[in-house]
Amino acid sequence: MTTTPLRALNRIELQVDLNYEVAGPGADFIFNVHAARTPSQSLSAERLVLTPAVVSRTHTDPGTGNRYLRVHAAPGTLQLSYAVTVDLMHRRSDPAQLDEVPIDQLPPEVLGYLYPSRYCQSDRLLTLASHEFGALKPGYARVQAIRDWVHGHATFTSHSTNSNTSALDTLIDRVGVCRDFAHLMIALCRAMSIPARYATGTDYGADPTLGPPDFQAYVEVYLGDGWYIFDPSGTAIPMGFVRFGTGRDAADVAFATFFGSVKSHRPTVRALAVEDATQGWVRPHHCTDALSTDGGPATAPGG
Amino acid sequence: MTTTPLRALNRIELQVDLNYEVAGPGADFIFNVHAARTPSQSLSAERLVLTPAVVSRTHTDPGTGNRYLRVHAAPGTLQLSYAVTVDLMHRRSDPAQLDEVPIDQLPPEVLGYLYPSRYCQSDRLLTLASHEFGALKPGYARVQAIRDWVHGHATFTSHSTNSNTSALDTLIDRVGVCRDFAHLMIALCRAMSIPARYATGTDYGADPTLGPPDFQAYVEVYLGDGWYIFDPSGTAIPMGFVRFGTGRDAADVAFATFFGSVKSHRPTVRALAVEDATQGWVRPHHCTDALSTDGGPATAPGG
Amino acid sequence: MTTTPLRALNRIELQVDLNYEVAGPGADFIFNVHAARTPSQSLSAERLVLTPAVVSRTHTDPGTGNRYLRVHAAPGTLQLSYAVTVDLMHRRSDPAQLDEVPIDQLPPEVLGYLYPSRYCQSDRLLTLASHEFGALKPGYARVQAIRDWVHGHATFTSHSTNSNTSALDTLIDRVGVCRDFAHLMIALCRAMSIPARYATGTDYGADPTLGPPDFQAYVEVYLGDGWYIFDPSGTAIPMGFVRFGTGRDAADVAFATFFGSVKSHRPTVRALAVEDATQGWVRPHHCTDALSTDGGPATAPGG
Amino acid sequence: MTTTPLRALNRIELQVDLNYEVAGPGADFIFNVHAARTPSQSLSAERLVLTPAVVSRTHTDPGTGNRYLRVHAAPGTLQLSYAVTVDLMHRRSDPAQLDEVPIDQLPPEVLGYLYPSRYCQSDRLLTLASHEFGALKPGYARVQAIRDWVHGHATFTSHSTNSNTSALDTLIDRVGVCRDFAHLMIALCRAMSIPARYATGTDYGADPTLGPPDFQAYVEVYLGDGWYIFDPSGTAIPMGFVRFGTGRDAADVAFATFFGSVKSHRPTVRALAVEDATQGWVRPHHCTDALSTDGGPATAPGG
Q1: What ranges in chain D are assigned the alpha helix state H?
Q2: C67-73 β-sheet, strand order
Q3: Confidence at residue B295, expressed as pLDDT on a 0 to 100 scale
Q4: Residue D128 is nearest to which of A124, A128, A172, comparing CB atoms?
Q5: Most buried among B48, B169, D232, D244, by the most CB within 10 A?
Q6: Which chains touch B (3 or more CB pairs under 8 A)?
């Protein structure tokens, strides 16, 4: 398999602001809004401020690299302001070279992504997936066909779903947001015995008619020797995604999980692409290469 | 908190036999039938034989200690025969001393067990759990109340459910097997922000009218400084459980997951308790102590 | 069984206003907003105005007495204004005298109300119902116990549910509006082989903190020799309900069903009780008698 | 619209045997195993025997013509043996002449078949149906396209589903029996605002590899001026269906509904076609005409 590694190609200046009203007697938060550090995503100028300046605990999950921030907040307002400069240098591969990996050859840590999860009930979809995709040639192209099927079988409609919505709902209701497209695609991949995981971060290049920049959910599928990005919602430019977390589904990597009575305001997300020819930084753009956030040796980019 | 550690109290001689018919073009299996090695569960005389003698790969998950065996089987018969001698020395604690742990003080690796999973849709049960258990004093006794509620709200009926059955189904249908009782209890604990996980292994002391010895699913809840065993099905003697695996729910730790066309015969499980006063080995029995498989310093047992 | 018939006891002046925006190419409406004519509910000064004055067709269902109005509306605004004076003279019975009716003695036209329907999946609730209510003495008191159980197992919260919400959802989510309480009670009655149907109309005496007067959904259960009113939501005064329709569940008697692209504004409902001692008209009030809208000979009221 | 009426074309000799074991304290049965009398289906030599000879009550539903038999059975065995000679003379129409009927022109008694029911949750399928069938030309051909879609999106597998299985399940699981195919097709028709109902009876000409002759569930859709037969399971010859009942879905017209503890044996169904050129009786066969059981003037058959 050929891989075209690269040095930093995209620089994103990211700013996230979250605002909550905490009712008595206080509430616990688990945030996953730190950008992840991965071989293809390096960070600088990172700053996270909580107002009021409550005690917080952070830890990085050794399996996924997700960075979690825990806060116990007293009643009143809680604001979280996060800024970071993100350099992206995806590993790029030729889709034609990316095969599905037989189950007995998968890395052990990947096996968990074969199983059904809360919002991705792949165990119900074995027959459907086999019927729709079983005759296709295994490999990246088949996963792309699953992505296209999901994209064609649901309509993106803001606020059409809620936090209980699962892949089965989306299959029936045929409507959703990026989270729902991701869950359905993951469920179908797993139903075909292809490991798939849920990734969160920030979008880039999304159609402004869909609203201001926002958090984004997308999919990573294990093919060849790593995890490759897919965007079944088709709303943004995958190359510009800044990754926060990966998990089995939205249950694992909500940008904010809270315990207690909390009113949340709409988050504010800003993602600016820095262009600088002298640095080799270009705007994220659609490309035909397969993109991985797993990293690998840096080299000159393709398309 | 007081803890009464102990040396090996129970010895179980375990024998598991699995039989499959694999159709063309072959199938992949992921087994989780090895007994786990934990501070409170030590193994000897372990032997696993596959017939035919196909190549297999084993790995131990670093997070859970689960031992997975992968096999790619050709069409025909596949038999797995596993035998092991298991010495159990549960850590025992006084239930009155076991508190629920505030979210901001939970060990990071425990957080994942707060979230909903495929068969434990705790996100749908927040109001129900709060209504039923919110007024109870936090601690082991509240978890015991959840266990008793589940035990009282469903009837154990062999073969009444299937592999798609979830906690929500059990709440409605009020019938199930040990797997279903476990899923419902886990979902309710998580809905109360109490970490709970699914444990599998072999039963011991189950009422023979429920059938021959079998695999068992039960619950571990994080309280005080460790994971404690609960048996919401009430069908067996928890002290005699041999643990195979722990996970988010049955999706993670099926004793056998297969990919391909496979016909499975009913598994055979034998669990013999060895009694020997000179060794201090007694038959597993019901006791009022809280039992943990996490281990801790060994000392003389309580009741 | 003793029955205390009565002459008109309550007079309600009712006014309903509905407003819609119809998109191209037009839409079809089926309204069920006419008050029903029943032996215990007589109408006068009835007036229904559609603006614009589109052609409409009305029919009265021979089985239920429901009055349906069909309209094909062109794009633009559609207003429906309905006013009626309703005289109520419920048949009243002593609850202690009302027995459940054996299945082989039910009137044929009642049998359909034993079966599960879209939002009342009684076929899933046989075990639950038997477990919760099977040991109670059959009769009105048992139905009242079902009503109280539903009332105690969910919390009334405006806008907490939608038109897809079913009895199973309410059992899990423990929250809803009058429609949801009604569906759950109906499902549980049917699971006990007690005929139950869904009734719609207008509320009266509802707590103003729940919002302005509104449409109301409640339950009628077949006991003794007729259908008796129950209000599991506990939000209003059953004696003041004006009945529009009865059916299997909300699917049958939505006050408005539309086909096409329609934006609906919040309906306006006004229900005024006329008090006049010379006529014998009193304000609707809570009472301990069982109330039936089936009618029967009119006579002096009880409590 | 042209209609080709006909005189009796097919004669079926039908024999149905049902066997139950009733546990204490007895059970109630509602049977719907009498063949219906319709303009296109006439009966002779009808005989129904219950053993033991318990008291029974029959009634014919005025809306549907369904014939219900109620029995209260004591503990012990209950056998029902039913025999009838059925003459079929379907109304036949040219599919090209059968239009969908605008909602405001539907006969009032047909409206109820637009609404969702227990196993046909059309309210969840509006988007899916519109996406799949919205662009097709309205009429019989569009309904046939819905029928073909259902037939192509699920696999007939005996015993793959149960009495709780609904159209949404079939859409996900892609497997079922004739009942499930019928429910899904009905739900999709209603989601397109096309009235559809569930019909039960006996199959004829089914592939013997699917098992012995059995009860059959199929679909009737309101088009033009009547209800027309569709068989989405594709397992039998529609011309040979003997109709027992029609309803909203399987909840309304189970061949046997029981209340109490009952063990049922597999029913025995025999359906013999009588061929007699002198009478004009031919074997039921596949044909391209649209077939209605509503009747109409009898005349010579087409293909």
Answers
A1: 126-133, 140-153, 167-173, 178-191
A2: C56-60, C67-73, C27-31, C256-259
A3: 57
A4: A172
A5: D232
A6: A, C
Quote the CA–CA distance of C299 and C91 in Å, as a whole number. Answer: 9
For the stretch A35-48, pLDDT in tens is 999 999 999 999 99
pLDDT, tens digit, 9 for 90 and up, residues A2-19: 444 456 799 999 999 999
Residues 6+ apart with CB under 8 A from D86: D11, D12, D13, D14, D35, D41, D42, D43, D242
Q: Are A8 and A89 in contact (CB under 8 A)?
A: yes
Q: Indicate the Cα dihedral angle B77, B252, A66, B222, nearest 10°.
A: -150
Q: Which of B117, B193, B259 shows the shortest C-beta gap to A118?
A: B117
Q: Are B198 and B217 in contact (CB under 8 A)?
A: yes
> B29-69: per-residue pLDDT in tens?
999 999 999 999 999 999 999 999 999 999 999 889 999 99
pLDDT tens-digit map of C70-81: 999 999 999 999
A11 φ, ψ (degrees, to nearest 5): -120, 130
Q: Enter the tokens of residue B90.
A: 């549960």
- End-to-end Cα distance, chain C: 18
| Interface probe with D: pick from C56, C104, C257, most Cβ of D within 10 Å | C104
D124–A155 C-beta distance less than 8 A = no
For residue B264, is pLDDT > 50? yes
The angle, 0 to 180 degrees and rounded to 10, between the axes of the packed helices D140-153 and D126-133 is 110
Instruction: Tell me the C-alpha distance between A33 and A10, whole Å.
Output: 20
| pLDDT beyond 60 at C298 | no
Contact A173 D124 (CB under 8 A): yes
- List the structure tokens of D52: 């033991």
Cis peptide before B267 (omega within 30 of 0): no
B168 interaction partners in chain C (CB closer than 8 Å): 172
Rounded average pLDDT over B194-198: 98
Q: Are D169 and D157 in contact (CB under 8 A)?
A: no
Q: Which residue of C has its CA nearest to D248?
A: C117
Q: Are C269 and C137 in contact (CB under 8 A)?
A: no
For residue B59, how far is the Cα from the chain centroid? Answer: 19
How far apart, in Å, are the Cα atoms of A27 and each of A24, A70, B196, C242?
8, 11, 20, 45
Alpha-carbon distance C33 to C35, whole Å? 6
Residues D39, D298: Cα–Cα separation, whole Å: 9
pLDDT for the residue A212: 80
Exposed e or buried b per residue across D12-44, where buried means at least 16 C-beta atoms within 10 angstroms of its C-beta: bebbbbbbbebeeebbbbbbbbbbbebbbbebe
Distances, alpha carbon D201 to alpha carbons A80, A94, A95, D96, in Å: 65, 58, 54, 27
HSE toward the beta carbon, residue B225, CA cutoff 13 A = 10
Nearest to C251 among D30, D102, D116 (CB): D116
The ipTM assigned to this model is 0.93
Is-contact D48 D56, C-beta < 8 A?
A: no
